[in-house]
User: Fold these one by one.
Assistant:
Number 1:
Amino acid sequence: MDYMTFFKSIKTGSLKGAYALHGEEEFVKESALKSLTSSLDEATRDLNLQVLEKAEADDIISACETLPFFGERRVVVCKTLPADSDARKLTSYLPGIPDYTLLIFFIRGKANEKLGIVKALKAENRLVDFAPFRDYEAAKWVYQQGKRLNVTITEAAAKHIVSLAGTDIATLNNELTKAADYVGRGNELTREAISACVTRSLEVRIFDMQDYLLSGKAQDGIRAYRQMLSDGESTFGIAGFMEKCFRSMLTARTYIDQGLNRERVLRLTGDKYPQKKAYEAALRYSRAEIIKNMRNFANIAYLKIAEQQPDTLTLENALIECMPKRR
């Protein structure tokens, strides 16, 4: 089940039985849980909402079997997934959950879909996926949230905020609220105001640096790198992100070498902004060059695990070395 269907089901009150909320978009997932618990009658909410930190089968079953207190239903939230015998016992119990109880497994990050209980929930369309937003989804959210914050915002302005801050909704919420306070509620959120107060995400800044390096502008690329360090970003964070970029390039390069065109590659890797950037960059390198650069950045990132602090020039040299060779 996608998150939009889940939100609609909350509004219609049609949710019954057990659901697992998982995925990397934590802010929206938290909002869904808050919306769900808020649907309980306020006067008896504390009595009909039970949150369990541990997934012990007997405790969960006992909570689900408890009758609502002066209400039509109760919500049981479990913050972890059961394992082993608890998982098997709960999987057998799920079809018999009373109609008056809604059981929610609230999972940080993605659930392991190989687990039996997760498979059982997915088979019944009860695994709710809160996947990272695509650019257009994030821009739509910003536009709607801007209206809720009582500022005048255009679709172009919403896209501009996403281009600066990325697609993480928690980050966008903070940046949008900051921008709304900057212009004042009831006023227009202009492109100029957005550029003045919205903080550019590390991802966006690294992609800008990468664009300089890919186009042969070494001085601009290193200047962007040094500015990130001055702003408090770590060499580990930058190296780790660059390693991730080259790993994505390697995936794209593999498909390119198999003769797949751009449309088919993005269909396989995802058509989000990072995957598009990875595809375009992969065209500039051979497979061997991508692997070499990926290992260079991985080695720098590994120094964090080894509790060694790399010299800033180590990463600087790796950045210069990763510039594509002229052919």
Note: The chain has 17 helices and five strands.
Number 2:
Amino acid sequence: MRTIWLFPGQGSQRPGMLAGLPAADRQLVTQVTGVELDDRDYRDSVKNQLAITILQMAQVDQLKKAGWMPTAVAGHSLGVFAAAYAANVISKADVLAVVKRRAQLMQAAYDPAEYGMGVILGLTRREVEDLVAQVDGPTTPVCASNQNAPTQVTVSGKKTAIKAVLELAQQQGATKAKLLNVPVLSHTPLLAGVAEQLATTLHKYELHAPQALYLANYNGHLVHELDPLAYDLSHNLAYPVYWDTMMDVATELDLQVAIELCPGTVLSKLLSSKCHKIKRISLAQYGIDDGLYLLDKWQK
């Protein structure tokens, strides 16, 4: 059965989400990174990114132990790392080391109290870009970033500038315009320097050609070779996530089931809205046991 595994990024984390995490995985995080996950407060980006990533990799292990392998993988922002792990590109320990470095670089680059992200629903990307152009400037940097759906666009930059864009969006008839619950700035050219530093870090680790189709954030398309995949891992934080394009491509892959790993539930819905014939399983909703039950049932 042809499946796509979807890996959300930051924003849907919640206290208690690591309740079922195997003790060995929690210990591995501490062993590799020196960070102890407490599963209570996710305001710290390092703990947040490590917690989401280890949770997703543990679920990948459970799916594979049950005999499943993805036909395709797609990660949203931070989710690219667990997606690469699922495609057998990089080891679990190396993912943790790289993700810790990524989070530290992002956290140090811009004050999270002053920089962040917002989301606008109900306007096209062109409309959002026109609003951004009215606000963006040397002291008020802001850009249109992730394209999650045709009329769902995020904006990244200085919070005062984001709020100004959100206000303009509401005046123009947006159905929703709000700041996002992410502890760091992401998906903006402001992080180009961080991306280069992360690429240097990534080169220290052994990477392998993907054993599943990989949909890249930075251009929205399938990549078949290791070099563009590695570029996506290191540089996606300096580009918009072209999720809407990624899902358009996914609908052409003759997929039967979309499995969304924790802690999110939105990505599989976005794909299903494009292709109703693709069944979906959100592990945050069903849990791993019921998720495996449904996979076995649908395979028969």
Note: The chain has a mean pLDDT of 96.
Number 3:
Amino acid sequence: MRAQTRATRTRGVTEIGALINRQAGGVRRNPAWTHRMQAMLPPGQVVVTSAAEEVVPALERLRTIGVETLMVCGGDGTVGKTLTALLECWPEALRPRIVLAPGGTVNTIAKSLGANADPVKLLERLVSGGPMRIETERPLLRARSAEGLVRAGMIFVNGVGVRFLRMYYEGARPGALGAARVVARVVSSGLVSGRLAREMFSPAAVRIRVDDQALDYDHFTAMAAGTVRHIGIGFQPFSMADRDPHRFHFAFSDAPSTRLVRELPALRRGRIRDDSCVEHHCAKRVTMEFDAPEPWSFDADVYAPTCELTLDTTAPLRFCVP
């Protein structure tokens, strides 16, 4: 692949585009990735962004030149921001197939879809024109807040999930090791109902409807949804995420920390226990009404508190791994 020149590349190369987030953790640590990827494609087909407001113009440029396969290189936050922008600026009938390249710090979404090579190797395989190793259709989750904010992504959390993210971001060590240390602290506290666990699993009043059916709960401690199986550091609670390309896996619990932390081994293996304290649904639409504003997160980005959220799905996108 390295010996291949622009003149000898296949016709299919002109249909490939790449968007690279310069600020993503892996890209910052490996600046040579960008130069090597730019050398593999014709000028203008690799676009590098440094800020969120640059994403829509970048996608519009790639759409204009006829890109049919789009590689998105960055972390989980890049996925959410880029695919939200894609929905805005790329007509549904013309949307490209997506290759998520793990260029961030943790890369839960890309790895959950099977992308375990670095971005350069993935692009080399893509340019070579060989068959895709993995092809799947997944919808994006779409959230609408009471304030009118609309975001799309593949992993939604609130409750303890948001508190976990904030604790992780406050830590000195990003990445899987830092996240594992946060989990270890929370689990240790949860087993004895310690102060940290009581704060992390603090219940909040809520009314939930799943596909127009009201759930018989009035508060929650943990809530999450996904269109990929994994939520991070090996945990795969969304075992129904790939069951239907028009639905998502919604998980909810009102259990205290002492029960939930004992559920973690099953959640890590992707199993739903018969005596589970977590309720699981394969849903098309979920509405949440909170008594007090609650923060929420898509793809590891945390958003402002709201009193009402609606989750549904977009039309399925085609994801592939070369």
Note: The radius of gyration is 20 Å.
